[in-house]
Design goal:
Layout lengths: L1 E6 L2 E6 L5 E6 L46 E5 L2 E6 L2 E5 L6 E6 L7 E8 L2 E7 L1 H6 L17 E9 L5 E12 L4 E4 L2 E6 L3 H9 L10 E6 L5 E6 L8 E2 L5 E2 L1
Antiparallel strand pairs: 1-2, 2-3, 4-5, 5-6, 6-7, 8-9, 9-10, 10-11, 12-13, 13-14, 14-15, 16-17
């Protein structure tokens, strides 16, 4: 009976039958870019280069530590609410809002938590480099374009025990795991697309980035071990993937 809501620097639970606020708990704060009316997004006509806006870097979470246009990615389970808040993965008690755990990124490097999914006892997460956000010029067009669809490239895919935070396995992307809409979990497997959009390719090229000599690829990994089950090279752009209960993969 709880509805979980996220606002600027705040996570809250609302009783879905009465509208009563059950609890509120703070989240790390970030600068709320807006086109005049405020808002949560990084995109703004007022600030056409948000990845360089000095005022925004005074907040706990900077513009290059955000992998989506607004807020933090999160997933809610009956025994825990997981919030990917830049440097930390926060886990809250759904009944009280109490912070149960605060995990750092489980592998070495200048990385941040991206998107999260839960399957059984396993939490699957993407990780990203702040430099990738800066080189992609996230939010440069004032209204989002492709980036507003949360399709930034993620440098790593990890699986952790969702109770202890222990790293179970990791996979490194060649191009970049397509964030959020390019990853799904079903029947003990993880399906993900390793590619970057044409717009991000152009921005990376401007930044002098080198590109891999392998084609963009659709992968299936074993959820328990991270081992590759199969791969399929792509010659077309895949925007979204989803897993069907009929055990079909929809692209």
């Amino acid at each position: 009976g709880r509805m979980i809501l996220q606002g600027p620097g705040l996570l809250a639970a609302i009783d879905i039958y009465t509208g009563r606020v059950l609890w509120e708990t703070p989240l790390p704060k970030m600068y709320t870019f807006g086109g005049g009316g405020g808002g949560l997004g990084i995109h703004s006509k007022k600030h056409p280069r948000p990845w360089e806006y000095e005022e925004a870097f005074k907040f706990e979470v900077t513009p290059v530590e955000r992998c989506r246009a607004s807020g933090f990615d999160c997933v809610s389970q009956s025994d825990g609410i997981y919030v990917a808040a830049a440097k930390h993965l926060l886990r809250f008690d759904p009944a009280t809002g109490k912070l149960l755990s605060k995990w750092t990124v489980p592998i070495d490097g200048d990385l941040r938590w991206g998107s999260v999914r839960v399957s059984g006892k396993t939490l699957v997460a993407t990780l990203f480099r702040p430099k990738d956000i800066a080189d992609a010029q996230a939010g440069y067009d004032g209204n989002g374009g492709d980036w507003a669809g949360d399709r930034m490239p993620m440098s790593h895919l990890v699986a952790v025990d969702r109770q202890s935070g222990e790293l179970l396995w990791k996979r490194d992307a060649k191009w970049g795991f397509l964030n959020r809409s390019g990853i799904c979990v079903g029947s003990g497997r993880i399906y993900c697309v390793d590619l970057i959009t044409e717009k991000i390719y152009g921005k990376f090229k401007e930044a002098g980035r080198r590109f891999p000599d392998v084609p963009p690829t659709l992968y299936a990994f074993d959820l328990a071990t991270g081992k590759e089950v199969w791969q399929f090279p792509l010659d077309v752009y895949v925007q979204n993937i989803a897993y069907s209960e009929s055990k079909d993969l929809l692209l």
